[in-house]
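Supplementary Note 3. Input sequence used for the single-chain structure prediction.
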Amino acid sequence: MQTVGFIGLGTMGGPMAENLLRKGYQVTVYNRTPGKSDELLASGANAAQSPLEVARTCELIFTMISNDQAIDEVYYGSEGILNGLQPDTIVVDSSTISPALARRLAADIAEKHADFLDAPVTGSKPAAIDGTLVFMVGGDKEIVRRVEPAFLSMGREVIYMGSSGSGATAKLAHNTIVGINAAGLIEGMAIAAKGGINGDSFLRLVQSGGAASKQADLKGRKILEHDFSVQFSLALMLKDLKLSSVLTDTLGVSTPMLEASKSLFQLGQSAGHGELDLAALAYCYEEWIGRRIGGEEQDSGESQPPQGGERRRKARLSLDIPLMMSVYQWEQEGAFSGQSIVGSLRDLSEGGLQVATTYPLEMDMFVVIHFQNDANLPPITARIIRIEQHDDLFYYGCMLSGIPLYQRQQLEQYIDRKLAEKN
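The predicted structure, written as discrete structure tokens, is reproduced below.
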């Protein structure tokens, strides 16, 4: 099998197609964004004008595509693979997609008397360039055996996972671990930085001890040097964690660590770091600790001045932002009574916020806080942990309950906007 099509020539796909060319395969390439195929064409690849053209001319087709919308266009569009697919063609998708989509592609391709494998990879850009990827494959085992030489032209190992969708499931489980490991590495490095530990020394410790990991090897030096050139983007990491969250809901698996890491990467995306390497999550931690992770300034052990919202909290500027609170009281089994009261946000702290109202409430009571529409915030549940009274106003210190980090950032941005309007 020598005629291979490759669709999707981005960070991973381009090097993978290049390795197929080096191994002597006749490769036809297509990419939705013009220009990404130029180097491959110079290396001897043939150009196709559409996925349909690839499907009509190739015995084996690989796709490596960034998101479900692009998958839909490449496979199901008017110029898509399914409209030109020939019998006995083998189609391999190495993207990270949901198991449900992988099974749907397998069924629709089978109707064309062709075969489909879901074969995502582990190993980011350096492994794609070196040809050391690991393929995790779902589908017919005999078809996997037939494609194995092509797999091993781009990678070092092929691991069979089971029937269609199994490769996609394994990939999401694997990338859940990657996301959690990466967030844990950055968090640990932030603790060390805030404590005045030299970044180089701490990374050596991590790589030499029980915290050693592939993420430490791949990302540790990038974090210290602020080299956030893309090996695997933060946006794609978030996409994979979201897919994994949907999958685990379907499977009924409780995943608190997945949800925590997803919130962290969502925060990084909201802060504008999505197109950088996933290690750029370090920017968020640097904002929180008020200093850079890595660099000579850590040797002094002295913390840098706080930044952004932290400065505002230290200064405890006066706030008076209108809000509503819903208060519910238990009457008897299965029955609650409740009412809405007018209040205002007066202060924001590390662990919660302070609200003021003329209405008397009690310690440990839970309230639901509703902000004005321009906040674009959902209702937030809080528990009253402190009460002060001045004149006719009650001031309630409220601990926030389970608010995701990205919503915390939205809340701080909303407060910053209100302060700017006030000034």
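Residues 267 and 409 are 7 Å apart (CA to CA). The first helix runs from residue 13 to 22.
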